[in-house]
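User: Study the chain.
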Amino acid sequence: MDGTGQLLRSQTAGLEAAFDVRCLAIPRSDMTSWEDITQSVLSLIKVELDRNSERSVYLCGESFGGCLAQKVAISAPSLFKRIILINPASSFKLRPWYVWASPLMNYVPEWVFDVGAIGLLPFLASLSRISEHDRTELLETVQSVPSQTIRWRVSLLREFEIDNNKLAQLTQPTLIIASSDDRLLPSSEEGRRLANILPNSKMVTLPYSGHACLLEADINLYEILKTNNFLGDLTITIPSKT
């Protein structure tokens, strides 16, 4: 939800064995609607495809990005060969008290957000599974988001709606990755719900992982895709040394 995309960096080297990785960055000042963000993503993808229309596109979204990925996928399903959803925050409404309590953030003083970020970390991630450097970077990233932007993006989660009938029409393979030890959101429950809706889906459970699972030292997204035969017929090329 920070919108920077920087926290994917620990996974990028592995993914580049098979993918030309593109990571969406949402400006910290951005407070546009789901519809506008969705159209922005589609425009960016089409720019990439204009350079090479033969490329296969894998759409991957984590947490807040998992909500956005669902919006993008139903808006242009033919663009994507495969979809990956990681602890999607579409589970926000499965915790009703989040829905009724989140508007109270509008009355929280500015200084509370920096202090609150520290208290949020144990819920956001399994800290014992993350290196000290990545824990520090996670905290700095969360604290870098202006309070007004946090309020807006939480309101987007509160208002998030998706047409389940349109989700059910997505026929491409979809991999749903859910953390059992997610203390922020009921990701396992949401994973099972989505797996029952998406017709060609498979769910992978990470038994010891927290919400920000991609930061954990033992989690390798590329290996998860490979193990679950989710690379399809991608050609993996290792550049020769000169």
Q: What stands out?
A: Strands lie at 58-62, 82-86, 174-179, 201-206.
